[in-house]
Every structure is written in C-alpha cells, then in structure tokens.
Design a protein that fits this description.
The chain contains nine helices and seven strands. With 270 residues, it is an alpha+beta fold. The structure holds adenosine-5'-diphosphate. Adenosine-5'-diphosphate binds at residues 156, 160-161, 164, 188, 190-193, 201, 206-208, 211, 218-224, 247. Residues 254-270 are annotated as: Disordered.
C-alpha cells in the first residue's frame, strides 16, 4: 500500500513539474520573434544553395569533355547540397518546436467549464475529507488562455483548501467578473497561513510549519505552479489568510469576450 502511495506521489510530482516547464509569456514572445526572423532568413538562405546547384549542373553539362572541370563543379555541388541538408534539418527542428508550442495554444476559455472540471477532479478527495465544495458567483464569463493549464492551477488551489481544512468545513469557489478582469477565489475555513509565510508559500518547495505537521504528503510545488500558470495568462494570484480562520486564494485574469459575442478573435502578436 505504501508503494502505491509513493508511486501516486511521484506521478503527481511529475505532472506538476511538466507544468513548471511551460514557458512564461515574455519567453513565448521572444521565441515567436526568433521564429519569424528565422523564417525570413531561411527562405533567403534556401534560395542560395538551390540556385548554386542549378548553375553548377548547367556548367557541368557544358564542361562534360573536361574531367577536371567536372570534378571541381561536382565537389562544389556536393558542398552546396550539404548546406541545403543542414538548413532543412534546422527547419525541421523549428517546426517540431512550433508543434510543441501549439499544444498549449491559447484560445477562448469558458470560466464555468474550468471551475466545473476543477471541482469534479477533487470531489472524491473532498468527500473522503468530509469537506463540502460550494460553487458561487458569476456565470458565463470568458478569458483567453489554456483551459487545461487553468484547470490544473485552480485544481491545485482546491486540493490545498481541502487538505488544510478541518472535517465538516466548506470550501467555496466563487467567480466575480469586473469590466476588465475575472476573479476566481478559493476560500477555506482551514488552518490558515501565518503572515510571515504568506509571501514565501509561492516559492518552489516552500511549506509552512503548520502544513508540514499536518500533511506530510505535500510537495511545496503546487502554489509555484499556480503562480507561474496565472502569470502566463497575464494575471496574478492574491492571498488573504489568517491562522486558524482560513485562507482565500484569488486568481485574477484579464477578461475577454466570448467569441460568439461579436468579438474578433485575438490576433497573434507579431
Ligand atoms: P504543498 O501543499 O504540496 O505543501 P503548495 O505549494 O501547494 O505545496 O503550498 C505551499 C504551502 O502553502 C503549503 O505547504 C502550506 O504551508 C501553505 N498552504 C497552501 N495552501 C494552503 C491553504 N489553503 N491553507 C493553509 N495553508 C496553505
């Protein structure tokens, strides 16, 4: 049974680490720029060896009765062909990179679905901890982002809220939309976080003392993943907490219109 626990924990850590690896927005933009420069440069670079090979082939044809000349043209042709090979290799790598990026492509995300999925993932955990999950607030709001990443982030907050709460308490997930932002708040009536720890809990592997004594299964990675995922969406995470009274973690994201509400799809940054 202990082995099963360890395996489950290791899998959890592996999943969380995958999310840590996702690049932040500024790096995303830098990559995008690099890619565009690269495409402009390569199309020019590709033309050069192709043109050279064509010219050398013509020259070889007309020099067919001079073996020395033919050999010289042939060796230059082979060098150009090698250059062409290297270039195509680089282009292949680039498109692989792009494909990996596309897997986490941002799009329209319905917050209702993110909340529903995140709650569903932890329903069993909540029941076995005798914690009731309650959903409230606004419906029908949208953000731009990756639904999977947001579900993972909100899920981490819900998992913590359950883990650090007493039996018979409630965990609330509330959505509030303002003109330009969407806030998703997770509130618990649990052990809370001492003021001295409130900044540090977002650091990788940091765990507050109260938590360590209560739940040995934690990794200290959850909140750093939440922070990273949310900042990748151009948002931020806020924390309000009082020891023994509870905590509220709020994910604040820039708001976007539903695509069918007449909004134009967001253009890719150049
Ligand atoms: P983990 O929960 O695996 O230890 P996290 O990064 O998710 O790691 O959280 C870091 C620390 O923040 C926890 O160890 C705990 O001290 C504190 N913490 C997070 N969420 C809560 C919460 N809802 N109530 C009380 N403490 C919390």
């Amino acid at each position: 049974d202990e082995t099963r626990l360890i395996v489950a924990r290791a899998t959890g850590i592996a999943e969380r680490l995958t999310l840590l690896i996702v690049r932040d927005i500024s790096e995303q933009e830098r990559l995008q720029q690099m890619r565009q420069d690269f495409i402009a440069n390569t199309s020019h670079e590709l033309k050069t060896p192709v043109g050279a090979i064509a010219l050398l082939a013509e020259a070889m044809e007309s020099a067919s009765d001079d073996p020395d000349q033919v050999r010289r043209f042939a060796s230059r042709m082979s060098a150009e062909a090698q250059r062409l090979g290297e270039l195509t290799g680089r282009i292949m790598n680039l498109s692989k990179l792009q494909a990996a990026d596309e897997l986490t492509e941002f799009g329209d995300v319905a917050v209702d679905e993110v909340v529903a999925h995140a709650l569903e993932q932890y329903q069993v955990q909540a029941e076995s901890a005798d914690v009731s999950l309650v959903r409230g607030g606004d419906r029908g709001v949208h953000v731009r982002g990756s639904a999977n990443i947001l579900i993972e982030a909100l899920g981490n907050l819900i998992a913590n809220a359950i883990a650090y709460s007493p039996h018979g308490s409630r965990v609330g997930v509330g959505v509030r939309a303002t003109a330009d932002a969407v806030e998703i708040a997770v509130t618990d009536q649990g052990i809370g976080i001492a003021e001295a720890d409130q900044q540090r809990v977002f650091e990788r592997f940091y765990r507050a003392d109260q938590a360590r004594s209560r739940r040995t299964g934690g990794t200290g990675l959850g909140l750093s993943i939440v922070k990273h995922a949310v900042s990748r969406h151009g948002g931020e995470v806020r924390l309000w907490s009082q020891p023994d009274r509870g905590s509220t973690f709020t994910i604040r994201l820039p708001r976007s219109e539903a695509p069918d509400a007449g909004a134009t799809p967001a253009r890719r940054k150049r």
